[in-house]
Predict the structure.
Amino acid sequence: MNPLNRFIYYPMCYPEGDWFLQGRVGARDVRLRTADNVQIDGWWFAGRGSEVASLFLHGNAGNVTHRVDHALAINKAGSSVLIIDYRGYGKSQGTPDEVGLYRDADAGYDWLVSSGFSPDMLVLHGESLGTAVATEVASRRRCAALVLESPFASLASMANKVLPFIGGAFVHGFDTVSRIGNVRVPKLIIHGEADEIVPISQGRAVFNAAKQPKTFWPIRQAGHNDLLYAAGEEYARRLQMLYQAATAQRR
């Protein structure tokens, strides 16, 4: 592994995590094989009567077991959801790196299509590091909409926040601002105004680089890890509005 990756990825491997939650919420195991022959795992949360399916790409720490509340909120908004664990996370094999994460996301996308969801029924939904992965996939593959929670402009821009002027010289990749202009579908960008890890200025930079249609939703008093809970019931309502707008374009 590239030594710098230790500062980017914080995977939690099985049996660490809240695996007992799977039976409690009725999530189904999904086992996928990537283009480079890595086995990755995920959980499928089927939504009753859902017209759309979301591919949820989580942040750089923990594993799928820590995103159950996200999945349930997305179900409530009207979408089924597949949450994958990147290579090296949860029960997935391999070691994480940027290109590998894109391949993992492609495997999730392909599984949804093979399960009967056409590309114009798919929502790419990223959280923190996963926003860069979601944007990369959306920039080259069809989808219905893109949701970004707590996005950053690029790894270099984040590194410069820690080490001004020189940080970006050592860390590169996950360059969302250079890709999001190629995403033409409706976009919802959500950011906590009190985010202590990814400043809201990063989310605004991503929003400014995006083309219409787009919506920026700042959440008052929300930090990086409590954004879902600070958003409350409005979270599902906003997602529902996005799904309705995206599916209306199909009719």
Summary: The chain is about 30% helix and 20% strand. The longest strand covers residues 39-45. The CA atoms of residues 196 and 223 lie 6 Å apart. Residues 98-114 form the longest helix (17 residues).
